[in-house]
Specification:
The protein is α+β, with helices and mostly antiparallel strands. 37% of the residues lie in helices and 25% in strands. The chain folds into 3 domains: 62 residues, Orthogonal Bundle (434 Repressor (Amino-terminal Domain)), CATH 1.10.260; 31 residues; 120 residues, Umud Fragment, subunit A (Ribbon). It is built from 7 helices and 10 strands. 25% of the residues are buried.
Length: 235
């Protein structure tokens, strides 16, 4: 049984739907839907931790379906520690997790391990806007590394407003998030149309000087769909 099938079982047992799980865990609904449908076959560790906590279980149970008696024993010992002791244990655990993840990424690179993410069939606009429909998507495979491990989905670029940084036909990978820092490039939904643009605080900016800024007005509907991590290739 896959980990996401155990999530579905726990959802059913707890009477929780995916929308409620997204709210409790803090994992974006779109990301959660992709994970539970198997579109993303290599979830991030912190994502699994959030989902497990929201369902009242552990990552170990989601991954292998087994409850470890040692886990309870360790928890009991942790509870007995004072504040200084708990902080020391948590710091050591964080260091070990970072080491394990780094080793896993290096091993993945050595063997050319790949992970799949979904890509929208309709390109995102680097021009005058296009409709990004999550119902129409397929998947692409990426070699695992520090950057691609953060990617949640990919989109094709259509238009030249982001040249010479991103060109018409480029495939960019994106990390799902509800906001990005000023000056970073993201994917945005603006009044129902999708764009790849640089966030300007009160506007969306293009790299190509031939395009004017899209300045936000009072009644505009503007949503950030993710941070652009980089370019994969042209296809």
């Amino acid at each position: 049984m896959e980990w996401y099938e155990r999530v579905k079982e726990l959802k059913k047992k707890n009477g929780t739907n995916t929308k409620e799980l997204a709210k409790r865990s803090g994992v974006p609904l779109g990301t959660l839907n992709k994970l539970l449908s198997g579109q993303t076959d290599k979830p991030k560790l912190d994502t699994l931790e959030k989902i497990a906590a929201a369902l009242g279980t552990t990552v170990a149970y989601l991954c292998d379906g087994k409850t470890d008696a040692d886990t309870a024993a360790i928890t009991n010992k942790f509870i007995l520690l004072d504040k200084k002791g708990r902080e020391a244990v948590l710091q050591a655990a964080e260091a070990e997790l970072a080491r394990m993840e780094a080793e896993a990424r290096r091993a993945a690179s050595d063997v050319g391990l790949k992970r799949k993410i979904f890509i929208y069939d309709v390109p995102v606009s680097a021009g005058l806007g296009s409709f990004l429909d999550s119902a129409h998507s397929s998947t692409i495979s990426l070699l695992v590394n520090d950057v691609t491990d953060r990617a949640d989905y990919a989109v094709r670029v259509s238009g030249n407003s982001m040249e010479p940084r991103y060109f018409d036909g480029d495939i960019v990978i994106v990390e799902s998030c509800g906001e990005i820092p000023v000056g970073k490039v993201g994917i945005f939904l603006y009044n129902g149309e999708s764009y790849i643009k640089k966030f300007g605080g009160d506007r969306l900016r293009s790299v190509n000087p031939d395009y004017k800024d899209i300045i936000f007005k009072e009644n505009d509907d503007i949503r950030c769909l993710g941070l652009v991590l980089g370019t994969v290739s042209k296809q």
